[in-house]
Structures are given as structure tokens and as C-alpha cells.
């Protein structure tokens, strides 16, 4: 029995929740996964998992062994990476996730530049507005546009999104231009459905005091680019980062409203796993992106 391989399969089975999911990921049969974990249990002398026809649960001993196994694999990965990095240039697979609109606007050019500098790093960029599980999906770096909660991950602040409220000239001609935040209650508000902070209320500043106004919307979308398209199609007022609408504002396809009351920012962070050792392929990308983002908030 390859005990190390069996330990890896056991840990991954607890992460994915089933032997079937592990077998599909590894390209082996579910029976092969089950046999290797059973052999590990036999060698240990105690069961790791309670199995039923539909699900599996850790035994008390299995939960303790899982903590040991995760630490073992993490320590092994770190020392191997550290020793390898001492003798090589940055290389290997680097998986990054980022919001769709940000990736469409800027990451293509940046990643092309990074790839030219580090040709031995294989980049995998996943654009999604959903908060995917960094550990479960084996993500190295996640770029997140949100207020950062208490987290088990390390983070670097990239820049602050300046929230801008905009609508098309035709919509404003039809509905009127709101002159005070309270007036948005009487407008068609286009809402980003994945943001708890801006889904049910919008945020303004009046006389130095923060105010939040409840909003109503017939259209909620989980993609910021589509929200901009709806605003351009005269469907209502929308709150978007300034960099997303700066070209349309300059071309007068959109107009900013409530500017004297608009001082809200939404920070953009880079997240990565909180481990004592960070592989060089991750370190160099973090340093590259932070340097590129130094003047981003001014855009």
C-alpha cells in the first residue's frame, strides 16, 4: 500500500464529500479510492469514516487523524516548494480567480505582461462574480471586491473602488434627475444581486454623516457588465465602480447623479492561503499585481 497516496485520497474525500467526487477528479474508479482508504484504515487499526449508501461522516478518530494528515501534507508541500524554489526560477501552475468585469477590463493585459516576464508559470484565470471556495477549488490567489471579513487567509489591499451612481440621459429625461439620495426610492434601481452591501440599500454621505437609503428594483443581476448594459439601455440608475463607467461618462452615454453625496468606496483585495511558506510563483504574482495597482484608484 502507498500510504502517502492513501492519506491524500482520504483528505481529499473529506474536502469533496464523497469517494465519487475524488474518483472523478483523479480519473480513477470509485472502487479504487474506496479500497485505498479501507487499506489505510486497516493499517491504522481504526475506522476513519462512517459510510452509508448516500453519505459518509468522519469518526471521532477520523477527525483527529484528518487534522494530523492535513498538517502533514501541508508541511510536506511547503518544504518541497521551498527546496525547489531555492534552485529554480518561479514555475508551475498558478490558479487565479477574479470578478468578471475587472478581469475583462484589465487582467488580460496585465497577465500578458506577467506571462512574458515569467514564461515558466502556467496561468489559469477563472472569472466569476461568485465567492468560490479557495481551498476546495485549489485556488492560489483570489481577487475579491468586498469588505473583507475576518478571514483565515492572508490579504493584500489593491485599491478602493469609487462607487458611482449613473443613468442614461434618456432615462433621466423621462424620469427626472435625482437631486437628493432620498429620491432614489422613486427611481428604477438596477441592483447587483451578489452584493449584500448594495443589494437592498445604497450608501451616501450628507454633511459628513453616512446615510443608507432603501431601494426597490424590478431588475437584479449577478453580473456588473450586464448592469451597465441595462443602464445604457435606459432601464434605470445603477451603482458601479467608477473605472467601469469612465468611458461612457466621457462620451456622455451615461451621466453621474448624486455626485455631491457620493463618497462610498468598496475595497479590492487579493487573498491567498495563510501558510508559513508562500511558493515563489505566488509571491511574484502578488508583488507584480500590487505594483500594477498602485495608481489604479485614480482611474
Low-confidence stretches: none
Structural class: alpha/beta
The number of helical segments is 10
- Helical residue percent? 40-55%
What is the H-and-E element order? HHHEEHEHEEEHEHEEEHEHEEH
**What separation lies between the terminal Cα atoms?**
58 Å
Total beta strand runs: 13
Outline the structure in words.
By secondary structure, the protein is an alpha/beta fold. It has three domains: 77 residues, Arc Repressor Mutant, subunit A (Orthogonal Bundle), CATH 1.10.10.10; 96 residues, D-Maltodextrin-Binding Protein, domain 2; 106 residues, Periplasmic binding protein-like II (D-Maltodextrin-Binding Protein, domain 2, 3-Layer(aba) Sandwich), CATH 3.40.190. It has ten helices and 13 strands. Strands 3, 4, 5, 6, 7, 10, 11, 12 and 13 form a nine-stranded mixed β-sheet that branches. A two-stranded antiparallel sheet has the order 1-2. Strands 8-9 form a two-stranded antiparallel ribbon. Strand 8 and strand 9 form a beta hairpin. Helix 1 crosses helix 3. The radius of gyration is 24 Å and the shape is elongated. 25% of the residues are buried. The mean pLDDT is 88. InterPro entries: LysR-type_TF_proteobact-type, LysR_HTH_N, LysR_subst-bd, WH-like_DNA-bd_sf, WH_DNA-bd_sf. Keywords: DNA-binding, Transcription, Transcription regulation.
Structural features:
299 residues; nine-stranded mixed sheet; D-Maltodextrin-Binding Protein, domain 2; Arc Repressor Mutant, subunit A; alpha/beta; 41% helix; 3 domains
Quick recap:
With 299 residues, this protein is an alpha/beta fold.
Amino acid at each position: 500500500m502507498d500510504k502517502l497516496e492513501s492519506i491524500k485520497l482520504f483528505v481529499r474525500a473529506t474536502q469533496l464529500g464523497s469517494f465519487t467526487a475524488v474518483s472523478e477528479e483523479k480519473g480513477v474508479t470509485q472502487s479504487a479510492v474506496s479500497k485505498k482508504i479501507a487499506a489505510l484504515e486497516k493499517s491504522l487499526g481504526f475506522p476513519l469514516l462512517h459510510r452509508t449508501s448516500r453519505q459518509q461522516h468522519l469518526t471521532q478518530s477520523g477527525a483527529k487523524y484528518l487534522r494530523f494528515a492535513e498538517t502533514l501534507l501541508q508541511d510536506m508541500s511547503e518544504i518541497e516548494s521551498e527546496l525547489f524554489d531555492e534552485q529554480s526560477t518561479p514555475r508551475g501552475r498558478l490558479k487565479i480567480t477574479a470578478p468578471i468585469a475587472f478581469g475583462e477590463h484589465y487582467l488580460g493585459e496585465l497577465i500578458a505582461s506577467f506571462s512574458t516576464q515569467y514564461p515558466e508559470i502556467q496561468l489559469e484565470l477563472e472569472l466569476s462574480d461568485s465567492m468560490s471556495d479557495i481551498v476546495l477549488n485549489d485556488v492560489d490567489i483570489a481577487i475579491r471586491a468586498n469588505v473583507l471579513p475576518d478571514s483565515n487567509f492572508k490579504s493584500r489591499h489593491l485599491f478602493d473602488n469609487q462607487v458611482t451612481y449613473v443613468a442614461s440621459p434618456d432615462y433621466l429625461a423621462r424620469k427626472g434627475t435625482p437631486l437628493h439620495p432620498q429620491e432614489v426610492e422613486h427611481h428604477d434601481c438596477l441592483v447587483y444581486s451578489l452584493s449584500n452591501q448594495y443589494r437592498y440599500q445604497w450608501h451616501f454621505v450628507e454633511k459628513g454623516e453616512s446615510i443608507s437609503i432603501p431601494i426597490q428594483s424590478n431588475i437584479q443581476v449577478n453580473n456588473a457588465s450586464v448592469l451597465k448594459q441595462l443602464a445604457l439601455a435606459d432601464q434605470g440608475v445603477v451603482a458601479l465602480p467608477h473605472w467601469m463607467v469612465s468611458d461612457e461618462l466621457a462620451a456622455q452615454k451615461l451621466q453621474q447623479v448624486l455626485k455631491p453625496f457620493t463618497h462610498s468606496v468598496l475595497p479590492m483585495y487579493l487573498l491567498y492561503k495563510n501558510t508559513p511558506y508562500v511558493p515563489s510563483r505566488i509571491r511574484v504574482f502578488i508583488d507584480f499585481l500590487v505594483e500594477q495597482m498602485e495608481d489604479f484608484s485614480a482611474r
